[in-house]
Design goal:
This is DUF1731 domain-containing protein. The protein has 312 residues and is of the alpha/beta class. The chain has 11 helices and 11 strands. The chain is globular, with a radius of gyration of 19 Å. It binds NADP nicotinamide-adenine-dinucleotide phosphate (NAP). The site of NADP nicotinamide-adenine-dinucleotide phosphate (NAP) has 24 residues, from helix 1, helix 3 and strand 7.
């Protein structure tokens, strides 16, 4: 297949590009800074010669969006919103106008669309969309708003010959440098991999092999469309998540951090505490119902595999 990945130069794009290329597919990445063969220039917002890459392709997987690993300043929040909404809009317009449109458009979304919650997991049917939870910082609703606008752009796109799927992805764990697993591993090996603010908040995650397999599954399954959770069936509280990661690294110590210490750490790392403190308890209802089997449903085994590959 010819698979076009707008925004495919980042962590998730690298995981997909490697796996899909190795499987024999032709992968074209749309980027604002092409540097390699297989990369085509686009600006992420307006039509251009890159449209030729989409016309005649089989699959589009749009990942573009400003990184959320930043301080949530008004300017950064605006860039997070605009980069997602505008890129999704133009991808939809170009697919809609293509003479030979792709048969499926997988659009990245996020598990962050669901509410901060501890008591029950969110699947696609019964999950609660966030944004109105009491007892959370008001600005957290902005991330949910970004996710909703992002998904709405795809829903409203007029692409009658192209199946549309929104990927409500949890944190994609891969051993690549600079990814979330790398950052958490780095903290763990410094002895800082303990519970944060009590560690009761849930962490949803997906192993990179399962992420790729789920994407391939969704490409093949003509009957699946709309939002699909891409998360392992075993989300777990942050304190248990970090305990298992320490175990995988054979690190006996993991200093706990208070909410206040997390604020200082996030400031120092130019990041935001929402990424650490929001309880994301998300499960893959539709994938399991459709018969998808996870190779890594539980975190301890996934963490051990990722550490082994990281060391290698
Ligand atoms: N990583 C995860 O665990 C995870 C989980 C759930 C959802 N997601 C979402 O999945 C997508 C990919 O994640 P990632 O971790 O691979 O992100 P990433 O490493 O930050 O890569 C995002 C890509 O988006 C492009 N981009 C950034 N700003 C842009 C803009 N203003 N206009 C157009 N393109 C822009 C960049 O491509 P160029 O600079 O080459 O143009 C970059 O390669 C993101 O939207 C992210 O929010 C990620």
């Amino acid at each position: 297949m010819k698979i076009v990945i707008p925004g495919g130069t980042g962590q998730v794009g690298s995981v997909l590009n490697r796996a899909l290329s190795a499987a024999g597919h032709e992968v074209v990445v749309l980027t604002r800074r092409p540097t390699e063969p297989g990369q085509v220039y686009w600006d992420g917002a307006t039509p251009g010669p890159w449209m030729e890459a989409i016309d005649g392709s089989d699959v589009v997987i749009n990942l573009a969006g400003r990184s959320v690993n930043c301080r949530y300043t008004p300017a950064n929040l605006r860039a997070m919103m605009d980069s997602r909404v505008l890129s999704t809009r133009v991808v939809g317009e170009v697919i809609g106008a293509a003479a030979r449109p792709p048969r499926v458009w997988l659009q990245m979304s996020t598990a962050t669309v669901y509410a901060h919650r501890f008591d029950a997991p969110h699947d696609e049917a019964t999950g609660v969309i966030g944004g109105t939870e009491p007892d959370v910082p008001g600005y957290w609703s902005y991330s949910v708003g970004i996710a909703r606008c992002w998904e709405r752009e795809q829903e409203e796109a007029d692409t009658p010959h192209t199946r549309k799927v929104a990927l409500r992805a949890a944190m994609v764990m891969s051993p690549d440098r600079g990814g979330v697993f790398d950052v958490l591993s780095w903290m763990t090996r410094l002895g800082l991999g303990g519970p944060v603010a009590g560690g009761g908040q849930y962490v949803s995650w997906i192993h990179d092999h399962d992420f790729v397999r789920a994407v391939e599954f969704l490409i093949d399954r003509e009957d699946l469309f709309g939002p699909v959770n891409l998360a392992a069936p075993g989300p777990l509280p942050q304190r248990a998540f970090m305990r298992d990661l320490r175990g995988a690294w054979r690190m006996p110590v993991g200093l706990p951090a208070t909410r206040w210490m997390a604020e200082v750490g996030a400031f120092a790392l130019r990041s935001d505490t929402e990424l650490l403190l929001k309880s994301r308890r998300v499960v893959p209802g539709r994938l399991l119902d459709a018969g998808f089997g996870f190779a890594y449903p539980r975190w301890p085994e996934a963490a051990r595999d990722l550490v082994r590959r990281r060391k290698a």
